[in-house]
Structure formats: structure tokens, C-alpha cells
Task: inverse folding
């Protein structure tokens, strides 16, 4: 117990609680992210409540596009879970495929979102048009930034998997998955609040 | 937990792996001790800037609209031949607060002490995520550069108060500051990102990487304080990050989140700011008190009084700190029905802090007290905090607060609390852990001169401010002489200014001592203060990887003057064998 230990081992698999450090760290990070979006969403709900006329502005959003995008993002949550399941089975090839699909769906989501924004801006609805639009752009914009960050993380994992460097760190797919699910869940809150309410 | 910790060493923290070259060793280091020193350097640099800003303000308050000695070189339109125009004064109050809270207090108390002490005190070889740690300090460095640049852009630095109240902060025309305020928001957002990463690292490290036998209730109180601070920061900063984004959009994209004319609400900013801002007070306070709590038992040669009550009080204060924020908003148009519950929680929060203060005093009771510089500063933390805490009760009750809010009473109150944590607590920590950090002792004589100058002139500066506040002097006033009823208070303002100048110059012995000791101080032994906690079981300074062998912990951190051992201290990692023959 008290000799010098120089065993090659990852810091982030070191643990005193049974929870791997990586997972613990990601959960703490997500806790702060929940507060971030919680503050923003809570503020929106209060303002939306105080401004019933915002419903007219909300009607200009395309429910079809929003629904399709919700479907895309939910599917990407499934694909990253499949990637993680493939890690569990030791199937690196499938893991890469599912991870690639996740990245692709992330891009599809952003592409659709960009198209949606550009039609809205084209119709004259910019952030300064009114309170609803300010919140709409702030909330979906901040969410889109999180999607981008997720794509970057997943891409880093994908590239290191392709270069065959991920092998000892495959549990990181789980960590990326936790974050990706969180981004998905935020959207699950944004979609009904902005498009349906 | 014990078995799963042992046997695994992070590759970054390999004890024999020191041939990393200059850049990896000193600049882009993943070693928590080097990163701690980098935080300390950033914090001390900004402390000088923050002090100079205070000097400029004090000169203006003592001798309004006269040339400030030594500042004739500042170009127009900032200053005119050394005279401070009102807009520049607004910038001074804003940047003094911003710098001191976000770029001095947090880097020193969390960045430097947290990084240095958490792994050493829990018997770990490094932080849980060493590279994330390096990223945190570099994001903070970048944020510092952004803030520094904001002083030099056209229009100058932010001038809407350190709280950046909207709508003043939401439109450039209101303060005449355009990019200064934008950069202020960006610098703060980066700073928050840096400490978010740091907080995740602190929590994961202290939860997961404790040495075998180091249960939560054997943790040194400093670790508890850093942990609570990290949780408070992580769970409170989110809404303000969202708020910062919204404020930036108001300024740049023409939205109206905080602008009433566009349907927004200025009070929204205050809620978002203070929901973070009040826990932030404790983010700063707790580590400062933690330093004092570590030092008091060591130099009283006595166990800490009420270890568990202190821990529970800390947690209670942490939880309560999330439901007191609106006491900053009593006079700002808040629904008066809300003032009552917030007064209640605010006064409630003084109970856990009173428990901690009483525990500190009781620790001293009957001890064999020694008075080296760290102990003087720890006692200073205690003494100064008591004044700050007691005056807080006035501010906490809405009826009293409405009169004293935005007067110098509040200025004095929060300097008594924050100066006690940041400077008394910070200096206590620096004098105490300097031998461990740099392997050399600091000079005692210079240290004591520094303490007495700081203690006496701190009180000379801030105690009279209570009278200024009670006399009605407004908090952010540019020229007190423009009101007749304040003119009789002017001699007090002049006195405060001279005391402040001596207080500022009184830091010179510290600077000299710091740098002189760095190179020429007496070589420090492993455990110069004869303390129990694990950081003193490693060489001074600890090598890369900290511990030759992961220590095994047998007891709590404050077992001083036990009858079972001949010395009056007993390190946490030393097993005690039963004495064959009873002593005496």
C-alpha cells in the first residue's frame, strides 16, 4: 500500500467513490449547465407568461421544421447510445459507424436550424423585432453553440477512433454521450416552449 | 474507498518524470503546484492594478477635481492633466470592483490555494484532470488580457459599476463606453468558464482522489471550504452566463431583454446577477476563512473547536446563500412583500457564520498561542470579519437597509467582509504556505511590519466609512462637496485617503519580502510549523507527483497536544503504536 506506485493508469479512471472521475466531472459540469439553461428557460417562461401576445409571434415559427429537427436530434441520441453499446460489445467498427452517424445528424440539425433562421430573418424577424424573437434567437442560438461543441467532441473521438488511438479510452464515448443527451434534453424543453406553447 | 485509490498513479504525476523542459515545466505545466503559482501571479498582478484604481478614487474623494499626484501622464479624454472627469471616475469604481472580486479574490483564494492545497491535503499526486487544469489557468490568463485591453479601447473600460446594472450597461450611449463594456462582458464570461472548469476539477479531485483512510470528516477544513465554494460557483453562475449573453445581445443585436422601452425588464439583470453574486460572496469568503481555520489550531497547538459544527455550518451557509440574493435589491423596486422573506433568510445566514466565528475563538481558548505572521493574519481575518458580519445584520433587514443602501455604510461593510477573506485570509495563507510552495521561509520581521501596517490602516480606512455612510454619503458619488450636508464630513474623507495611501504603501514590505524570500529566504524544512495536515509530510517544495508513496491517513487533521505522543503534533499519516509503559 505504501510503496511508490508507478503503474500506468489513466487519471480519469482513478476513483475513490466507485464512480470514474471522468463521469463524475461530466456530471458536475452538466449540473452547472442545467442551471445555465434553467435560468434562461425560467426567465423565458416568466416573460412569456407576462406577455400573452407573444403567441402571435410564435405562430410565425415553422412547426414542421421544428418537428423534423426534434426528430433528427432524438435520433442522434439513439445513435450515440448505439455507439456506446458497440463499445460494450467490443465492436470498434460499429462504434465508428454509429459515432459517424451521430456527427452527421448533428450537422443535419444545424443545417436545418440555419435554414430555419435564414427564412425567419428573410421574413423580417430578427432578434430586435420583439421580446419573443430576442428569446427565440438567444435560446436556440445558445443551444446551437452547444450542438456545435458536441459535434467537435464527437469528431475528436471519431478521428482518434479512425487513427486507432481510442482503444484504451473508449469509455469516453459514454462521457460524450452524457453531454449529447443533455443537449438533446435542452431541445426537448425548447421545442414545446417555443413552437407549441 | 481505500483500496480503489491505491495502486494507480496518473502518468502526468510520475515522481521521477521531471525532464520536461522549460515550457512544459513553467509555462504549459499540468502540475497543480505550478498552476497554483500561475494563479497567484495573476492575482497579485491584478491586486496592484486594483489598488491603484482605489488610490485614484480616494484622491478624487479627498480633493475633488484636483490633479492626482503621479497620474499626469494619463492621456485625454480619460484624465485631463491628472484631473479625474466624472466618466473616468465611473470607470474607476467599476473596474476596481471587477478586478478585486473576479481577478484578485478568485485567482488567489480558489485558483492558487485550491489548486495548490487540494491535491496535497488529500494525499493525491495531482488534480483529477491535469490538462483541464492547465486550460483553466490559460483561459483566465486570456480573460485577463481581454480585461486589460478594455482599458485601452476608445471610450475606455466599463463604467456601469461592477454589477453592470441595466439599463445603464445595456446601451453604449448611457455611459459613453462602447467596446469597454463589451470586452468586460466577454472577459467575465471567459473568467466564469475558467472557474467552471476549475470547479469541476476541484470537486472531482476531492471526492474521488482522497488517500486511503481520508474520510470526508477527516478532510482539512480548507478542503471543505474550497469544495463548498466550488459547488456554490458551479450552481450559481449559469444564469449570469445566460444573462451575460443577453446583455451582449442587448448591446450588439438590438434586443431588449433589459431595456424597458422594448418590453424588457431592468430588474431581470439584477436577479440574474445577484442569484450568482451572493453565492459568489461566499465563494470568496469561505476559502479565506478556510485559511484562517487551518492556521488557528496550528499556532494554538490545540485541536480545532467543533470540527463537525463548522462543516455543517459551511454547508448550511452554502445552501442559504442561494435564497438571500434579493437583499441586494431592497431599494430597487422589488415587491415589498418579497423583502420580508429575503430579510429573514439573510439574517438566518448569520447563524452558521456566527458558529464558525465562535469555533475560531474557542479554538484559541486555553491554547499555547504563538504569533508568527500567518497567525497574526489569521487572527486579523477573524477580527475584521466579526465587524463585517455584525454590520451585515443592519443591511440584511430591509427597513434599515433602505436607509443605508448605496451609502458608504455598505461600502465599509463589504470591505470588512471581503478584505478580511481576500487580504487577511489571503496573506495568512501566503505566509503560511509560502515555505511549502517555494521551499523558503518568509522574513518574520518584514511580515510583522506588513501585518501591523495593513491591520491598523485597513481599519483607519474603512471604520470611518461607517460614519460617512450613516451621515448620508452616497456610495458611488463623484464629488461629495457638491452637497452641502456632506461638506462637514470632508475632513473624514481626507483622513481616509491618507490612511488608504499608507495602506497601499504598507504592502511594500510584503512585495519586498515575497521576492527577497523567493531567492534568498532561509531554506524551509519539510514541516516548519509542526502541522498535521498531509501537505507538510512532503518535501518543501513538493516534487512533481507530490508524494513518494500515497499516504495512509489515520486521523483527523487537528490532533494537537495529544497525551499519547511526546510531540505536541501528530501528522495525519503517522500510525501511533500503543505505548508499552504508561507515561509519567
Result:
Amino acid at each position: 500500500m505504501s510503496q511508490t506506485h508507478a503503474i500506468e493508469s489513466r487519471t480519469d479512471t482513478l476513483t475513490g467513490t466507485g464512480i470514474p472521475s471522468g463521469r463524475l466531472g461530466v456530471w458536475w459540469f452538466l449540473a452547472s449547465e442545467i442551471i445555465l439553461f434553467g435560468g434562461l428557460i425560467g426567465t423565458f417562461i416568466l416573460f412569456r407568461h407576462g406577455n400573452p401576445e407573444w403567441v402571435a409571434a410564435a405562430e410565425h415559427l415553422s412547426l414542421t421544421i421544428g418537428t423534423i429537427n426534434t426528430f433528427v436530434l432524438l435520433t442522434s441520441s439513439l445513435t450515440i447510445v448505439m455507439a456506446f453499446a458497440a463499445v460494450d460489445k467490443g465492436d470498434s467498427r460499429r462504434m465508428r459507424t454509429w459515432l459517424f452517424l451521430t456527427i452527421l445528424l448533428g450537422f443535419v440539425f444545424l443545417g436545418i436550424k440555419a435554414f430555419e433562421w435564414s427564412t425567419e430573418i428573410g421574413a423580417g424577424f430578427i432578434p430586435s423585432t420583439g421580446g419573443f424573437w430576442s428569446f427565440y434567437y438567444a435560446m436556440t442560438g445558445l443551444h446551437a453553440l452547444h450542438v456545435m461543441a458536441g459535434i467537435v467532441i464527437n469528431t475528436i473521438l471519431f478521428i482518434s477512433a479512425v487513427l486507432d488511438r481510442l482503444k484504451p479510452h473508449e469509455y469516453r464515448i459514454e462521457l460524450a454521450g452524457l453531454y449529447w443527451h443533455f443537449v438533446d434534453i435542452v431541445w426537448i424543453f425548447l421545442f414545446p416552449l417555443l413552437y407549441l406553447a | 474507498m481505500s483500496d480503489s485509490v491505491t495502486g494507480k498513479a496518473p502518468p502526468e504525476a510520475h515522481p521521477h518524470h521531471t525532464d520536461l523542459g522549460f515550457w512544459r515545466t513553467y509555462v504549459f505545466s499540468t502540475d497543480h503546484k505550478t498552476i497554483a503559482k500561475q494563479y497567484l501571479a495573476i492575482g497579485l498582478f491584478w491586486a496592484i492594478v486594483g489598488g491603484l484604481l482605489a488610490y485614484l478614487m480616494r484622491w478624487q474623494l479627498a480633493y475633488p477635481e484636483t490633479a492626482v499626484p503621479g497620474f499626469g501622464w494619463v492621456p485625454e479624454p480619460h484624465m485631463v492633466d491628472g484631473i479625474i472627469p466624472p466618466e473616468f471616475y465611473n470607470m474607476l469604481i467599476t473596474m476596481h470592483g471587477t478586478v478585486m472580486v473576479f481577478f484578485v479574490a478568485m485567482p488567489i483564494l480558489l485558483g492558487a490555494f485550491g489548486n495548490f492545497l487540494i491535491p496535497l491535503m488529500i494525499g493525491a499526486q495531482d488534480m483529477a484532470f491535469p490538462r483541464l487544469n492547465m486550460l483553466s489557468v490559460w483561459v483566465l490568463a486570456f480573460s485577463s488580457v481581454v480585461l486589460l485591453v478594455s482599458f485601452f479601447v476608445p471610450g475606455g473600460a466599463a463604467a456601469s459599476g461592477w454589477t453592470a446594472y441595466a439599463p445603464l450597461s445595456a446601451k453604449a450611449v448611457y455611459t459613453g463606453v462602447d467596446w469597454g463594456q463589451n470586452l468586460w462582458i466577454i472577459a467575465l464570461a471567459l473568467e466564469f468558464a475558467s472557474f467552471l472548469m476549475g470547479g469541476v476539477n476541484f470537486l472531482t479531485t476531492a471526492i474521488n482522489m482522497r488517500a486511503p483512510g481520508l474520510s470526508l470528516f477527516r478532510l482539512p477544513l480548507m478542503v471543505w471550504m474550497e469544495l463548498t465554494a466550488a459547488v456554490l460557483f458551479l450552481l450559481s453562475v449559469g444564469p449570469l452566463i445566460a444573462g451575460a449573453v443577453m446583455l451582449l445581445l442587448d448591446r450588439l443585436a438590438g434586443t431588449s431583454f433589459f431595456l424597458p422601452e422594448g418590453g424588457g425588464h431592468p430588474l431581470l439583470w439584477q436577479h440574474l446577477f445577484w442569484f450568482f453574486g451572493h453565492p459568489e460572496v461566499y465563494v470568496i469568503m469561505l476559502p479565506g476563512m478556510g485559511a484562517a481555520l487551518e492556521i488557528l489550531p496550528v499556532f494554538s497547538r490545540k485541536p480545532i473547536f467543533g470540527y463537525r459544527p463548522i462543516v455543517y455550518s459551511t454547508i448550511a451557509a452554502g445552501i442559504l446563500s442561494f435564497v438571500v440574493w434579493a437583499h441586494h435589491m431592497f431599494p430597487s423596486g422589488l415587491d415589498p412583500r418579497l423583502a420580508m422573506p429575503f430579510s429573514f433568510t439573510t439574517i438566518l445566514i448569520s447563524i452558521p457564520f456566527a458558529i464558525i466565528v465562535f469555533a475560531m475563538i474557542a479554538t484559541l481558548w486555553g491554547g499555547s498561542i504563538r504569533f508568527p505572521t500567518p497567525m497574526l493574519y489569521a487572527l486579523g481575518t477573524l477580527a475584521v470579519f466579526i465587524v463585517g458580519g455584525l454590520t451585515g445584520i443592519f443591511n440584511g433587514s430591509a427597513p434599515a437597509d433602505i436607509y443605508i443602501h448605496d451609502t458608504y455604510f455598505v461600502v465599509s461593510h463589504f470591505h470588512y467582509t471581503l478584505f478580511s477573506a481576500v487580504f487577511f485570509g489571503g496573506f495568512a495563507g501566503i505566509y503560511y504556505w509560502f515555505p511549502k510552495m517555494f521551499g523558503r521561509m518568509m522574513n518574520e520581521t518584514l511580515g510583522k511590519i506588513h501585518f501591523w501596517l495593513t491591520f491598523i490602516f485597513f481599519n483607519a480606512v474603512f471604520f470611518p466609512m461607517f460614519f460617512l455612510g450613516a451621515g448620508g454619503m452616497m456610495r458611488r458619488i463623484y464629488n461629495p462637496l457638491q452637497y452641502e450636508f456632506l461638506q462637514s464630513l470632508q475632513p473624514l474623507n481626507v483622513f481616509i485617503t491618507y490612511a488608504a495611501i499608507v495602506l497601499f504603501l504598507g504592502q511594500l514590505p510584503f512585495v519586498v519580502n515575497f521576492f527577497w524570500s523567493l531567492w534568498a529566504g532561509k531554506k524551509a524544512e519539510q514541516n516548519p510549523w509542526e502541522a498535521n495536515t498531509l501537505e507538510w509530510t512532503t518535501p518543501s517544495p513538493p516534487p512533481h507527483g507530490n508524494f513518494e508513496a500515497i499516504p495512509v491517513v489515520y486521523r483527523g487533521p487537528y490532533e494537537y497536544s495529544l497525551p499519547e505522543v511526546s510531540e505536541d503534533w501528530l501528522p495525519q499519516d503517522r500510525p501511533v503504536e500503543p505505548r508499552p509503559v504508561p507515561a509519567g
